[in-house]
């Protein structure tokens, strides 16, 4: 078994997971567009499989670890140093697998044994990273600021981080008070509100299982964002985005409140400021908040360069 | 050297230690095996050798059999070496001809196999017998002790320790970093559980410090260097310039009145920024010394050099204000040092979920302490930052205490001061008060009664660690207020309590520079960073460095009664040390056989106690017996083998090794 590292490659490898190919396709589109605008190469992992998140992880941890481990192992072969996992659930599943394999010899034995039978190698040396933290650390606020070509004319937005990207691992941001998305947005000239619920539950899969509870959690977030004067909620997770975006009509009916907020991906906002086009950023796929989207992201917001 | 007091006549004593040793090994077999060793005249076992009859047994044998060596196989020498040495001395034997070997901690307590444990004990006893044959009689040295004491820190601990020593007629240097003494206690309004006014009981002691002929008080000063050893510490104290000359100032405070700043406009540290002061100020009305201090950061004269200096005019002929004052360094000699450097409260910004620094109406307990205080920034009115009176107040317990994420220890005082603040806020405002607690800990005299009193006063107690303090409103009743989210563990449900004011009961932790201070005084810290006492039960105010004692919260969180008790104890220990006039020194020190010393000076740099020097006239290393702690570093390092350590001579150690390996 060879443990030699393959030749190092520049840019980033990226693991879309199921969401980014379905409900969260706008996330994939905007992420690719943003990296294109930043002139950073982004390559999709070939032959990837399910990350093993939520359902798997709670029923059969071993199987979930193995699913993630296969992805990590494939990624390591490519020669990239970093594997981007834009979906928070994928990020956490991959990260957790790596952590458990490193810390628990029994898990390690089992996983590497299975991988070996499949002709795969180790999975340690690849770094699992979230695009938020990559943009914050590797690209940096300064480089983003320099590349801004559109001036934001809208109101402030609420940055919503959700739970999985910041807990229990804290590489993405400070678990209790994350601010890096706010900083990125401010760097490209988009104001943000102080959103106290930035790491509260979006309802997760409860919107599908115990619907009323899921809806209530959703409603709390939407209402507080509106109360704080935010014109949209910006997310880093496809499940958060979907939950908040998809049920607003239902919430309007049941809570009898006129909530209608667009739910964006942070990559869409950043991409737009850097000159990305409406469709290329997947903005046309939004369900809620039509008026807002039209107001700020279409024809009237013509391209202009900062002087 | 061998047989220096005649052919060895050794007595061996094997202790049962009740069943601690005897239950695991055959002590009779051990004694019998020892009797067959060369030089052993008598070998016995006994149930408790440390008891009086046990010691008498040894003493009688010394006299009867004319023993000139004794081996005791029992517990750790940490416990009873002194006992058996003293017993031997009383029977006329030099105490350093007694050797202990540990068959309890090293054997019976860690082994289960009877046969092997017995064999190990036999080996250990043989090693001790072979070793003790090489022992020589030694004498303890005596080092004179300087009769003055340094107390570091002028909070209630330092004040009480200094006054105790001064009242006993000893001269004390009290060094305080702040411009005034008083410490945290001076900031409190009332003290629990009796609710007596903190200032009323503290300020008389502060004044007594100032006027006591036996106390030299240096405020705005810091200990910046410590050298020496027990009884003979030489200490360097840096005195920062207050720009007011202490010997000339009369304390009239007219300069403050006259300052070009009509309004006090700078954040006042004593009141945690809730109040304002001028560039020349007195920290608080009862400050000791009653003397203003100039803050060069805000004083115009320092910033631009172009001030009208109305303060100088007001001071007039006294000419106490001196903008040219410089830092001064004082050097003093003391015999003992008491550290009373106190604590700091946890910065609640470390727990962003409690909203401190985010929501203006989230306060720390110390801030509220200043608000309820009549000499505080609001003159004793409990008001929010916008001047409104709060109608509902939430007190969050255990902020930075009993918490895996911050500090794991209980800070011991927060429950009680939270109860006290609940009472005071209720008294001042009539507000509805909620205490959020994990457990209410009231284990002091009158504490539980005080808790009952609060329950009767109608203060609410909700059991559960607060999850967060937030401003997100679920319904109109919460709009514009702070919402405390908590799991009520008695009710088994999550609650949202809207309040106007949140008080965070912040815990106690070591000062930010505790590690620096620890190194300066060459003492140790526990894992959490508090200074470590020599023994948690039996030497609670001593440190592992002789002559340095601890008092107050620098050793761990405690309330005022405990602090004062500890300060008294530390003063007593220091007094016992300096009143003896000398300290006895163990003779296990190292010395140089000059004829073999090659003057390579390897040992000089290695000695952790700076005890070795190479005088120019001889060119040979010499070891200061008062400074040597007997660590053995130089002995091991000396390339020519010219350094010998008493009680650890090569022959003694080799014999011991041979003895322990000579089984079978």
What does this structure look like?
The complex is a heterodimer of chains A (307) and B (664). With 307 residues, chain A is α/β, with parallel strands linked by helices. Chain A contains 14 helices and seven strands. Chain A folds into two domains: 118 residues, Up-down Bundle (Glutathione S-transferase Yfyf (Class Pi), Chain A, domain 2); 158 residues, Rossmann fold (3-Layer(aba) Sandwich). In chain A, helix 1 links the parallel strand 1 and strand 2. In chain A, helix 3 packs across helix 4. Chain A starts with 11 loop residues before the first strand and ends in a 10-residue tail after the last helix. Among the domains of chain B are: 131 residues, Rossmann fold, CATH 3.40.50; 65 residues, no CATH class; 166 residues, FAD/NAD(P)-binding domain (3-Layer(bba) Sandwich); 57 residues, Alpha-Beta Plaits (2-Layer Sandwich). Chain B is built from 18 helices and 34 strands. Chain B has a five-stranded parallel beta sheet with strand order 10-7-6-18-29, with helices on one face. The mean pLDDT of chain B is 95. Classes of the chains: A alpha/beta (307), B alpha/beta (664).
How far apart, in Å, are the first and last alpha carbons of chain B?
Answer: 30 Å
Main sheet of chain B, how many strands, which sense, barrel?
5 strands, parallel
Instruction: For the largest sheet of chain A, list the strands in their spatial order.
Output: 2-1-3-4
Number of DSSP E strands of chain B: 34
Class of secondary structure makeup of chain B: alpha/beta
Count of discrete alpha- or pi-helical segments spanning 4 or more residues of chain A: 14
Number of strands of chain A: 7
Q: In the CATH hierarchy, what is the superfamily of the domain at 344-509 in chain B? A: FAD/NAD(P)-binding domain
Q: Classify the beta-strand content of chain A into a percent band.
A: 5-15%
Low-pLDDT runs of 5+ residues of chain B are: none
Backbone shape of chain A: globular
User: What is the helix/strand order of chain A?
Assistant: EHEHHEHHEHHEHHHEHHEHH
Task: Give the CATH level 1 class of the largest domain in chain A.
Answer: Alpha Beta
* Rough outline of chain B: globular
Please identify the structural class of chain A as seen in this structure: alpha/beta
Q: Proportion of β residues of chain B?
A: 15-25%
Mean pLDDT of chain B: 95
Radius of gyration based on Cα positions of chain B: 32 Å
